[in-house]
Amino acid sequence: MIIQRIKLTIEYDGTNFYGWQKQENYPSIQAEIEKALEKFFQKKIDIFVAGRTDAGVHARGQVAHFDAELDKANNSHTEYRIRSALNSLLKPNLISILNVEFVNSDFHARFSAKQKSYIYKIINRYSPITIDKNHCWQIFPKLNFEKLTDCARCFIGNKDFLSFAGRDNQSHTTIRTIDDVKISRYDDEIQLEFLGKSFLHNQIRIMVGTIKKLTLNESVTNVEEKINQIIDAKNRSSAGETAPAKGLFLNKILFY
Fold this sequence. Notes:
- The protein is an alpha+beta fold and 256 residues long.
- The protein has 2 domains: 2-103, Alpha-Beta Plaits (2-Layer Sandwich); 114-255, Alpha-Beta Plaits (2-Layer Sandwich), CATH 3.30.70.660.
- Helices cover 23% and strands 32% of the residues.
- It contains 5 helices and 10 strands; from the N terminus they run E-H-E-E-H-E-E-E-H-E-E-E-H-H-E.
- It has helices at residues 29-41, 79-90, 145-153, 203-216, 223-233; strands at 2-12, 48-49, 58-70, 95-103, 113-124, 137-139, 157-160, 175-186, 189-196, 248-255.
- Strands 1, 2, 3, 4, 5, 6, 7, 8, 9 and 10 form a 10-stranded mixed sheet that branches.
- It is elongated, with a radius of gyration of 20 Å.
- The two termini are 29 Å apart.
- The mean pLDDT is 95.
């Protein structure tokens, strides 16, 4: 028997969950995966995640790790067999283990992360949403894509994002670095990708809400000046609304 650290890459639809973190009396992604692990390994196992997602937020490439006692002679203790077993045990939850990888003991899902990519999805039209109902923010008035792009890119850099911190933020500092913001549009779908090592609670959703507010405000012509004013205010009330959780996806995580 050996103790093996195991890395999971996970995809999930967060619609019916109260976020990643397990909590009493409410369904969570963490609780469902730990239940599946306990059934497979016949032992209680704690998992550690790269970034906790809130209620309603989705993931395409969430990463977590755990340590398990493996019998190398047991053919069911291969990466492929563990992935297959966990996916079977997780049904019918909308949680999928995309990959299982044996890693060194110095790997840590949270502390080894170099950069995280979050995508926020907007559908900009008046017609009702069907397929993407639980996976986007529908904004009805026509958005000026050029102005939206200018606005979004103003967040790039090392700044104090106190004005964009959620009410439950517990970070010891509100200074964060956004490495890049990528914006794409296809027909009525707009995607904003935010890249950085870490983000404050609700930071991306508040930034998106602010982008919407400034883009639709025809009296705001210099968006860079306005965003700098909001940043300098260091006051949540100066920013825009918190965009709905359902439009946010933890897209992928890069590691050292």
